[in-house]
Amino acid sequence: MQVSAGIIKEADVLLASFFTGMILLFVYDLLRIMRRLISHKAWVTGAEDLLFWIGSAIALFAMLYRENSGYIRGFVIGGVLVGMLIYNLLLSAWVVKGSVFLLEKILFLVGRPLVWTARILKGPLGHLKKMLKKVLRFWKKQLKKIWKAVRIGLCKL
User: Fold this and answer.
1) Is residue 29 helix, strand or coil?
2) Residues 50-63: pLDDT tens digits?
3) Terminal C-alpha separation, the chain
4) pLDDT of residue 150
5) Is residue 81 within 8 Å of 21, Cβ to Cβ?
6) Which is the most buried residue in 11, 48, 111, 119, by most CB within 10 A?
């Protein structure tokens, strides 16, 4: 018994919608990872979500246009939702927690030498800063004196 070409095409559309849902949720997980590493204000989070959903709508439209000539079918929406659900249940927690853990360790290892360097340079740079402030204060006083003399000279003209 042979399966018709129409059913194979519909199965391809369903599979594409399933993977599109998984990819969309993976991209959202990337946003979640970024939010856990870098704190965001509420309006930035809202803007990111808005851009994500606009991008998701464009991606879904492109998938529907490419796979199904732009026709919106119920099983396509269901395939996207099932793909999102399966990804969320099986992979999402592992991806987010694992990535955050790994990136925090990498940032710690990369940042450690920078902290040590800053501690070492803190003393000499602090003394240099104090000396620079004294020199700038001296020149500021001198320039005020010169400016005052110039003003008095201009007023006498």
Assistant:
1) helix
2) 999 999 999 988 88
3) 112
4) 83
5) yes
6) 48
CA 144/CA 134 separation, integer angstroms: 15
Distances (CA, A) of 138 to 98, 100, 106, 145, 147: 56, 51, 46, 11, 14
Give how far Cα 97 sits from Cα of 32, 34, 36, 37, 123, Å.
10, 12, 10, 11, 39
Mean pLDDT (the chain) is 88
pLDDT tens-digit readout, 89-145: 999 999 999 999 999 999 888 888 887 877 777 777 778 888 899 989 999 999 888
pLDDT of residue 1: 66
Burial of 32-62, coded b for 16+ CB within 10 Å and e otherwise, reads: ebeeeeeeeeeeeeeeeeeeeeeebeeebee
pLDDT cut 90: percent of the chain above it: 43
Determine the Cα–Cα distance for residues 86 and 80; give it in Å rounded to an integer.
10
pLDDT in tens, 28-57: 999 999 999 888 899 999 999 999 999 999
Mutual orientation of helices 42-68 and 5-37 as an angle, nearest 10°?
A: 170
